Amino acid sequence: MFESFQRSTSEHLDRPKYHADFRRHYEGGVSFLRKLERGQSFQERGFPSWEAFAAGEWNRALSLIEEKREIYATQFQKAAALGILQRRIRVVEFPVTPYVQWELFVLRLRVELGDNIRVLDSRRISEIEADHLVPEAVILGDEVMYEVVYDDDGNAAGANRITDQVAIEETSAGFDVLYRQSEDFMEFFNREIAPLDPPMVTHRVITR
User: Fold this and answer.
1) What pLDDT, in 10s, does the model give residues 152-186?
2) With contact defined as beta carbons under 8 Å apart, do 185 and 117 qualify?
3) What confidence tens digit (pLDDT) does each residue in 78-113 have?
4) Fewer beta carbons below 10 Å: N end or C end of the chain?
């Protein structure tokens, strides 16, 4: 699965060019957005909730998530107006990393507002990932897809742009298979995330 994604040629876009290209296609008439998120630790500087989380202020980090409610609601209203169906798979490894623990609280707000997010236990795809991890992929209809890339510290570093139609179709088909195998977000969250103690963070080195 995702072999054509691994073989496809791409064009690297830095963050501003990636965001501009994404907006152009997103607003240009695509009917579907698929997002597959695989990484277990990222940096999200500039996001107040993440900054509080990274500073070890867990309760403040959770309270600051609410600041995103209006922004996310506006995003979903725009997607509905454009007729775009959005789906996301969040792959989770065990033990759950502190970053993913925090991020799933953010995603819970998105789900409350109507986002279609499902969670996939990485142990269920161990055979698929025998040779390579499933990609960090964003697919916009049948027009374009992106391999989202990060630097060694987990900072967003743009994306590799792929337009090969066979690769897009096969990656979309693989996404749909995994989406059906994934678990309802709230069921996973209530069972695996809600009972966890707050993660411990020391000097931005995150440990449990």
Assistant:
1) 889 999 999 999 999 999 999 999 999 999 999 99
2) yes
3) 999 999 999 999 999 999 999 999 999 999 999 999
4) C
pTM greater than 0.70: yes
Q: Give the C-alpha distances (Å, rounded to integers) separating 166 from 10, 130, 169, 179.
A: 13, 23, 5, 20
**Token output for 11:** 């064009």
Q: Return the amino acid letter for 83.
A: G
Report the pLDDT value the prediction gives residue 202, as an integer from 0 to 100: 57
Q: Does the structure show a pLDDT above 80 at 206?
A: no
Give DSSP secondary structure letters for the chain: --HHHHH---EEE-HHHHHHHHHHHHTTT--EEEEEE--S----TT-HHHHHHHTT-HHHHHHHGGGGHHHHHHHHHHHHHHT-EEEEEEEE-SSPPHHHHHHHHHHHHHHHTT-EEEEEEGGGGTTTTSSSPPP-EEEETTTEEEEEEE-TTS-EEEEEEE--HHHHHHHHHHHHHHHHHSEEHHHHIIIIITTSPPPEEETTEEE-
For 94, other C-beta atoms within 10 Å of its C-beta total 10
